[in-house]
Amino acid sequence: MATKKWRRELPLHLMVIPGLILVLIYHYGPMAGITIAFQKFIPAKGFFDSTWVGLENFRYVMELPDTWQILWNTVYIAVMKIIAGLIIPITISLLINEVGKELIKRGVQTLIYLPHFLSWVILGGILIDLLSPSEGIVNQMLGYLGIEPIYFLGLDAWFPYTLVVSDVWKEFGFSTIVYLAALTSINPTFYEAAIVDGASRWKQTIYITLPGMMPIIILLTTLSLGNVLNAGFDQVFNLYSPQVYESGDIIDTFVYRIGLVDAQYGVATAVGLFKSVVSFFLITISYYLAYRLANYRIF
Amino acid sequence: MHYMTSSRRAFIIFNYAFLIGLSLLCLLPLIHVLALSFSSSAAATAGYVKFWPVQFTTNSYHFVLKKPEFLASVWVSLQRVSLGTIVNMALTVLLAYPLSKEVKAFRMRTYYVWAFFLTILFGGGLIPWYMVIKETGLLDSIWALIIPGAVPVFNVILLLNFFRGLPKELEEASFIDGAGHWTTMWRIYVPLSLPALATITLFAMVGHWNSWFDGLILMNSPDHYPLQSYLQTVVIRRDLSLVSQSSLADLANVSDRTSKAAQIFMGALPILLVYPFLQRFFMKGIVLGSVKE
């Protein structure tokens, strides 16, 4: 009996195995490679023969003067992005919902998530040109209003906010569509009943539309919790420069520079491990909350 | 419709203006870059170009399309997108089918699902990832861009949930007719999920086209860079060491700004071409993620 069952399941195992092997090598392999964080790692010696240094790499990082600033930058930028990335799409989906003309509704929906599908290399190239203080069109327009050119990408006072605004610009359309999809599932008879009762459009929005969106709002809010240490490597890497390291350097760009540019592998892995561990707890909590509050199960 | 209060009318006018402005905000930057790429270098440098080419010329495109490094990187990208998407999709289907089974039918299912799901929660970080790719001998080969990311775990979960939404009777009928798992997967599940598969395929293609960081660090020689990595070095980092001597001579006739604009636009062009399809499948993709049994 047991062998018969096994025979019937064999094809299923065969299907899983190629993918499983690849995941073991390229996802679990790096997890095993975390040992580098506790070594003075020298690539020529490999994982096994490099000297063990205990927590030395962690101590070294904590004594670096920039570390706390980088941690702060990461959380500050990420949290601003999370908040703006929740409020703005909700507002805009409510506004789009008020549009009666189907053509305009469709047109707006079509255009606003175009930037979502472009890479940060392309968008970075565009933004660097648009925001240039000497020839960029944004500063040109500001000039017509009598405002002096602003170096959005080169000043600490502006850089983090430029990151947040440009990230919202790239992603708001995508989230807006998700909220709009949720709106279509609201039962239309609710609105009919409200109209009979004499509720204004504003009252309908407050008492029917918003509560109808609540499950998806709660879901996306809880899931975004996992991103508190993700300030957006792709974006920052393509927009920052040494002038704005003080306000714009984040954990991921820091790991890249000390690891792959300065070849301090042990130190970089230690910083990466710190981020992975904290993120692990955040993501786990966010999935748990999403499950409890919004009944969300990923599989 | 019936009567409308004046405040309601004011709101509607404001709303239309706001939303149309917002849409333009997403479109105009691209139009500006397109206009720059077709303008003369003098007009671009002087800042005359807004949203329409000034002193129309295709010089920038002639310059870019003659650069051997640019063309080489386009070729690498095309290889990467086609090979990478095939590998991604084959593994996605192969994993989603068995993992969509009930524990009764596949006792190891839960363990396997967790093994894949854990990789979403935790990772080794950049350096160990790089070292594993180096140790497995993939550096500087096109496979470095395909094999490490060959299993798109999130897409597997999407398709797995979709498979679970299909009626169980079809599978039972197939088994009664004597079909095995391979036949059932290929003849029943795959044909029934074509829209879902099309969605995931498009997303895999866009993902491969847009990736730039892996190319940048896993390729030793710039001739092996895919287009986005090449653009990263030339447009963002302005690294002129990658530009050949003949191109440097040509650069005298084409401004840095217009040639960059042309390259940015060409990097975005494939996405713009598939955008109508992306859009059509996009809503389905959202629904796809929410299908649960």
UniProtKB/TrEMBL annotation, chain B:
Compartment annotation: Cell membrane
Biological source species: Paenibacillus sacheonensis
Transmembrane segments: 70-99, 111-130, 142-163, 184-206, 261-278
Domain ABC transmembrane type-1: 74-275
Superkingdom: Bacteria
Location, primary (coarse class): membrane
Lineage: Bacteria, Bacillati, Bacillota, Bacilli, Bacillales
Family: Belongs to the binding-protein-dependent transport system permease family.
UniProt keyword Cell division, yes or no: no
UniProt KW Nucleotide-binding keyword: no
A GO biological process held by the record: transmembrane transport
Annotated membrane topology: Multi-pass membrane protein
SUPFAM superfamilies in alphabetical order: MetI-like
UniProt entry keywords in alphabetical sequence: Cell membrane, Membrane, Transmembrane, Transmembrane helix, Transport
Protein name: ABC transporter permease subunit
One Gene Ontology cellular component annotation held by this UniProt entry: plasma membrane
Record PROSITE patterns: ABC_TM1
